[in-house]
Amino acid sequence: MSAPSDNMPVAVAVPHAKPMLVRHLPYFIGAAILVALAATVQVDGYVHNILMQATTFAIAVFGLSVVLGLCGQINLAQAAFFGLGAYVVGIGTSDYHISYWLCLAGGCIVALLAGALLGASTLRLGGHYLAMVTISFQQIVTLVMINAIWLTHGPDGVSNIGRPDLFLSAQSYLAFCVAMLALVGYFVWHLADTRLGRAMRAVRDNELAAGVVGIDVFRTKIYAFALSAVLGGLAGGLFAGGFAYVSPDQFSFAESVVYLTMSLLGGVSSPIGSAIGTGLLILIPEWLRFLKSVPGLYLAIYGLSVILIIRYMPDGIWGFISAAIDRLRDKVRAPPAAASLKLMPATVGGDIVLEVNGLSKYFGGLKAVDDVDIQVRRGGVHALIGPNGSGKTTTLNVLSGLYKATAGRILLDGTDITDMPPHLRTAAGLGRTFQNIRLFRSMTALENVEIGAERPGNTLIKGGDAALTERAMEALTFVGLGARANELISSFSYGHQRLIEIARALAANPTLLLLDEPAAGLNSTEKLELHELLKRIAAQGLTILIIDHDMTLVSEAAQHITVLNFGRRIADGESMAVLRHPDVVSAYLGTE
Amino acid sequence: MDLFLQLLFTGIGIGAVYALVALGFVLIFRATNVVNFAQGEFSMVAAYLMVVFAVDLHWPYWLSFLCALAGMALLGVIFNLGVYYPLRHRSFLPVIIATIGASILMANSVLAIYGPQPQVLEGWFETPGIQLGPVYLDSQYLLIIAVTVALVIFNYWFFERTMLGKKLQATSQDKEMASLLGISVSSMIMITFIYSAVLGGLAGILVAPVLFVSIQMGSTIALKAFAATIIGGFGDVAGAVVGGLALGIIETFGAAYISVPYKDGFAFLVLIFFLVFRPQGIFGERVAEKA
User: Fold this and answer.
1) Of A216, A399, B157, B243, which alpha carbon lies 20 to 30 A from A586's?
2) B92 contact A CB<8A
3) What global pTM score does this model have?
4) What are the distances in angstroms from CA B50 to CA A464, B117, B208?
5) A293 falls within a domain
6) How far apart are CA B90 and CA B87, in angstroms?
7) Do B105 and A295 touch (CB under 8 A)?
8) Strand A568-574 relative to strand A560-565: parallel, antiparallel, unpaired?
9) B270 CB near a chain A CB, below 8 Å?
10) What is the pLDDT of residues B206-255, one digit of tens each?
11) What ipTM did this prediction achieve?
12) Domain assignment of residue A220, given as a range
C-alpha cells in the first residue's frame, strides 16, 4: 500500500484525445477498400461462393463473440437464428414477393424475438440450462423447417430467393454484404468499451459483484443473447439473398457447432478472432476436400478441435497473437493525472442514513440473523462486530440484496430497499466491498473502477467516457494506486486488490459504504494505512458501516458499535461503552 | 381405454430409458458440478458396440452385453482423463464446451465408421411379449422397466449404505474437505465417470431394440434426459427418475393424440414451461452461492 500522501496528482503526460471518428478513420478506409475490391475484382463462381459464405458466416460468428466472448453465456443455436433470418427472407421474397429490405428487417426481428424469449426464460438460471435449452431450440427449429411443409416447403427448401433491386448482380450483392460485415465488425469491436459492453464483461467475470456495483445482470445477459440472435438473423438473411436457395440441413445443430468452433478457434473475445476463425474453417475444408468423402469425419475433427482448443489455447488464435504483441509492446501506458476525489454523498433523508428494523434471515431452521435493529447515523463510522458465526456477513448480504430478508425492513436514506434486487439498491446509493475480494479479473484496475463509477444514480458523472475515466482515476489515486491504473487485476497484491475494491465503491459516490472485513488478510502496516484511508473517507462525510474482527481498528475508527451474537443484537451504542458492556466481554472472552 | 393403458405402458418404458440417462447426468453433476453434454453419446456408443459384437461378430447376446459394458467403463476412463480432468480447475463454461466437443467427436466418429444407415439390434428375449388383458406388454419394455427399478434400488443402497457411496457423496459436497479426510478425490471422480458411462451405456443397449441404432439417438436421448432432470429438480436422484417417467408418458401421449412429427418437440415445450413457472423442478434444486 502506498502512503496517504499519494493522493497528490501523479505527473504524467495526458495523451491528447483525438475525436473518435478520426482515430477510427483507418478502419473505415480499409473497409471501403475491401468493399471496392469486392465490387470490382472479377472472380469465378466457386471463389465467389466461398467469399459469400465467409462474409455471412463471419457476421453470425460476431454474434457468438458478443454472447460468449463478452458476456460469457453460451449459445448453441446460432445456426437456428441464422436459419430464421434466412427463411424469413427466403419465404418472404420468393413466396409472398415482399420487398427484400422488409424481409431482412423481418428476419432480424424474428431472430431478436426468439432470442429474447429464449433468454428471458433461461438466463436467470445457471449456464448448463442455457446450453441445453439452446440445443433444444435448435432441434425444434430444424423440426419445424422440415415438417411445416405448407410454410417452409419442407426438406426441399426454398428457392428463387430475391435480392434488392439495388444489388441485383452477384458481385454488387457481395460488396453489399462485405459492407454490412464491416459495419457489424465495427459495432462489435467497440461494443466492449461501451457501457453495455463493460456491463457484459463484468457479468462474465463475476456475476455477484456485477449486481452489487449496480448492473442489472439479468437484463445485460438478455441483451447479449438477443444481440447475438439478431446478428445470426441478419447473417442468415444476407446468406439467403446470396445463394438464392436455402434448405433445412444448412441450419442444423451441426452448423451451430461449426460456428462455435470458428469462434473458439479464432478467439472468442474479439471480432478479429471471429473473422480469423471463420476464414480458416471455411478455407481448410475446401483445401482438404478429400476428407469430405467420409460423412462425419469433418465434424469429428471439429469436436476434437474444440476439446483441444479449450485445453491448450483457451483464447484462440487471436488471443495467442495479441498476447504476444502485448508482450513486445509493453502495453501498460501510464495513466493521466487525476484531481483529488470528491465524495458528495446524497443527503435526502434525515439524520439516520440506514434504518434497519426487525431484520431476520433464516436458512431453514437456522436463525442466522434474528430480529436485528440497526441505526446508522449520517457522516459517522458505524461498526458491526461479533464472534465468528454471529451473523455479521449474513446481515451485510441481506442489506446489499444478495439474500432476501425473511422479515424486517431496510430504509436507505428514507427509501425502502427491502425488496429491491442488488443493482437497484446500488442505484439507491449503497456501495459495498467483499470479504473475499470480487473484482472483474480480466480487466484493468481502471476498468474495474470505471464500472463502479458508472453506477446508475451517480450524479457526479456528467458527459460520457471521459468523465467516467476521470472519476475512476480520482478514486484510484485516492487509494494510492493511480499510477498503476492500467495494470490487470492479477498483477496486484491482495492488499492492493482490496484497495481497488474500495476505490470501485468510492467512485460510485455512494450514500452509504458497507465494508465487509476490509482488514482481513492485511499485515500490520497495511492495516494502519487502511485506517488512514477510512479516516480520509469519513472526513469527506461519507457514512460507513464496517464489519471487522480487528478490535483496534474498530474501536479507533468507529464512533458507534452494534454487537451481534448468535444472530441477535446483544449491544448497541457509543464505542467505548459497548466494548465494556459485560455481555460483549463475555461473548468475546467467554464467561467465568 | 385400452389404447390409453397401452400408451401408458409404452410411455413408462420410454420414460425409464430417459430416467437411466438422467441418473447418469445427475451423478456426474453432483460429483463435479458439471453437466456432461456427452452423456447421451454414451448410450449411442454402447448401442453401436452391441451391434459390433452381437450382429457383426455374432457373439452370444450376454457376452456382447458384458463386453459393451466393459467398453463403456473404458470410455468413462478415457473421457475423464481426456476431457474433464485437465479442466477441473477451470470455470464451468470451458468444461461444458469441452463436453459438447466430446459429444460431437463421438457421434461423428461413429458416423465416419458406420455410415448414416440406422442399424437394427434384436431384443434380449425370443418372446416378443405377453398379452395382459387389453394391454400388450412388449418384453423389451418390461426388461427396461425392471432394470430401471433395480438400478434405482441399487443406487439408493450404494450411496446410502456403502462406504464407497458415502465417500462419493462427500466428494460431491465438498472436495477440499473430502481430500482432507483422506478420500482420494481424483479416484472418486474417476469412479463417477465410469459409473455414469456404464449407466448411460446400459440405457442405450436396452433402448436400442426399441428404437433404431442411429447416430442421432444419443443427442435425442440426452435432450430428453436433461429435460427430465430439470422437471424433476436439478441434481436430485428421485427427481431424475420421476421427471424421466413423466416425460416418457407425456411424449407418448403427445405423439398418439397430437402430432407424430413433432413428438420430439413436446419435451422442449414441457421444459420451457418448467423453466418459466417452476425452474427449481418438482423436487427443487439446491442453489446457493456464498458472497
Assistant:
1) A399
2) yes
3) 0.86
4) 65, 16, 9
5) no
6) 5
7) no
8) antiparallel
9) no
10) 989 988 899 888 888 888 888 898 888 877 788 888 999 999 999 999 88
11) 0.86
12) 23-252
